[in-house]
Design goal:
Blueprint lengths: L3 E4 L4 H14 L4 E5 L13 E3 L5 H10 L4 E4 L5 H6 L1 H22 L2 E3 L2 E2 L10 E3 L10 H20 L3 E2 L1 E3 L1 E3 L12 H12 L1 E4 L7 E5 H13 L11 E2 L3 E3 L1 H9 L6 E4 L3 H9 L3 E2 L2 H7 L7 H13 L3
Parallel strand pairs: 1-2, 1-4, 2-3, 4-5, 5-8, 6-9, 7-16, 9-13, 10-12, 11-15
Antiparallel strand pairs: 12-14
Helix pairs in contact: 1-7, 2-4, 4-5, 6-8, 8-11
Bound molecules: 2-amino-3-ketobutyric acid (AKB).
The site of 2-amino-3-ketobutyric acid has 13 residues, from loops.
Length: 314
């Protein structure tokens, strides 16, 4: 049986991944950690530890105590927050990652950490962005993500750590809101549509970015971690996307369910600049070929589910 330790378990990905892995592998086999207590008890009854990922000793201690055989390192600052505080982002995103990789090396565990479409930059091909291409990001978050991809590949090649990763697009979920990302608008829009029937987008009309619904994202993590290592030509990190969408695409999809819904714009220059430096649509074919990535939700199926789920929550 697996013993999986998750950092950043109370975050947007962590909260759903922890629940999903606990139902798959058993509550006590998934050790959730986060910088803050799970005050609302949202993660259930399995093991939980408060962990600051910049504390290497504490991370090692917890992984050893529970005999973790897999580390899923999610704790990180997202793109817009990282741009506001680049030094903190470097220390947290890179310091946390190298600590987690060292624990994985010492305890011989499997390792997952997400990269992002933020690992690309303005000189990357914008359409059908290839798996292997130019990566010269212009944000601190992107610099962290490219460095992280290289570091994970290095730990695999140099020390034999079984590192695997994906380049996540904007993730949309009704369970936990994201915080400090550039793609957050694509979550906010659903809450506002239900609450107020309108939404003011900080990302401009016509700005396309890749997106994915959270159930597809957590399934992708499990699928990649269970994939036959001999089939993996790439490791860190696979392009994965389920849709390319601009704000007006969300407006139209929501209007099918809430006809009076209206979107207007008040563009935030910082986040707009980040969005414009990222691809419009990435090519996920390496993930499909090497481990069977197969997302189930397009924008319409996702919108129907998001609105249905949020109706009882908002
Ligand atoms: C962000 O917007 O920072 C994240 C991401 C695409 O990595 N959602």
């Amino acid at each position: 049986m697996k013993k999986i330790m998750i950092t950043g378990a109370l975050g947007q990905i962590g909260s759903e991944l922890t629940t999903m892995l606990r139902s798959k592998y058993g509550e006590n086999n998934v050790i959730a950690t986060d910088i803050r207590e799970d005050e609302s008890g949202s993660l259930g009854n399995g093991p939980f530890e408060v962990l600051d990922v910049t504390d290497a000793g504490q991370m090692h201690e917890i992984a050893k105590k529970y005999q973790a055989d897999t580390i899923m390192h999610l704790a990180a600052l997202l793109s817009a927050k990282a741009e506001n505080n680049p030094q903190l982002a470097w220390n947290l995103n890179m310091g946390g990652l190298v600590n987690a990789l060292e624990v994985a090396r010492d305890l011989n565990t499997q390792f997952f950490t997400p990269s992002s479409i933020g690992a690309f930059g303005p000189s990357t091909p914008k359409e059908n962005t290839p798996q292997d291409t130019i990566q010269r990001p212009t944000t601190m978050y992107g610099v962290n993500k490219v460095s992280g991809e290289l570091l994970c590949d290095y730990y695999f090649q140099r020390f034999g750590v079984d590192t695997r990763g994906v380049r996540f697009p904007g993730l949309i979920s009704y369970v936990t809101k994201p915080g400090g990302g550039t793609t957050d608008y694509a979550v906010e829009v659903y809450y506002e549509a239900l609450k107020n029937g309108k939404y003011t987008s900080y990302i401009g009309e016509g700005t396309h970015m890749d997106m994915m619904y959270m159930p597809d994202a957590v399934n992708a993590i499990v699928q990649l971690m269970e994939a036959d290592a001999s089939k993996l030509e790439h490791r860190n990190a696979f392009n994965v996307s389920a849709m390319s969408a601009a704000p007006e695409d969300f407006e139209k999809a929501i209007q099918k369910h809430i006809p009076e819904f209206k979107m207007d714009y008040d563009v935030d220059p910082v986040r707009q600049k980040i969005a414009e430096s990222w691809p419009n649509a990435i090519d996920s074919s390496a993930a499909k070929d090497e481990w069977g990535f197969d997302p189930k939700y397009d924008i319409h199926k996702m919108t129907e589910d998001m609105l249905q789920q949020l109706k009882v929550r908002v």
